[in-house]
Amino acid sequence: MNLAALGQAVAEAQDAPPDRALALIRPLLRDIGWFADLLAQGCAALATDPMHLPAFRASRSGAARHLVLARTERIWLSATVIDPVEQAGARVHFSGRHMLCRPLNRALYGDGFRLERERAVPTGQRHCAVGDVLELDERHETLRIVPGDGPLMLLRAQVAPDGPVCSRTHDAVTGALVARAEADEGHARALMLLSLLRAQRRADAAAQFDDALDTPLPAQRWAVMREYLALDTGRALPALRAMAHEERDADVRALAVRTLAQIGGVPCPA
Fold first, then answer.
1. Longest Cα separation, the chain
2. Residue 175 maps to a domain
3. In a shared domain, residues 19 and 148
4. What is the dihedral of CA 10, 213, 181, 117, to 10 degrees?
5. Is the pTM of the predicted complex or chain greater than 0.90?
6. Are residues 107 and 190 in the same domain?
């Protein structure tokens, strides 16, 4: 598989149903000719210009270093190096995405966990040999990688489900939930644009704020409402009143009621 096929597969997978997206991404982990081509091009560029920098974003999280090879709203593809150090604190992370990974330099060993009645339950050790591909639906199962004698190099792909992604962190010893986060990249991007419109005082864009209130995540609905109120309180009042009476999330509904009381929209229930 060549680099052109990589770009085509990622682009098609972005807009495909989840099962089809996975079917498009799996071959990228099984036939990694495109990755060999990418490395060869990078080495040739460095031989010509020692100051050459690859056109990829790099990041680090704890012992893991990532080179992001492709990223869309739903598809993430990276080359990852995990250093052989014990992580501080016994934590287990469920990304909320479907994960595929292929060890490149040595076998991968890890402790498996699955979600069971809101707790992380051990499922035993997992093993993946060099060249094999491990798949995990990290909405329900995950792997805590065991450090080895040297760095572990992986190719890793993540495919998000339709709609918001819910990630969870659990204590590896007790299985208890430590942290939970929900994200919808499309709506998060829309919120950034709304913030820009509000900063520019674009009251003519009020209809865009109304439309953006239709998001599946309660925190983002309230974030949109805050921007709307800051832009044009009068135009936002009908939507705020509706939120105070009809909002399905109790915390957001309470915020709407309190805000209405503060600006004189309704009597304070206290």
1. 73
2. yes
3. yes
4. -100
5. no
6. no
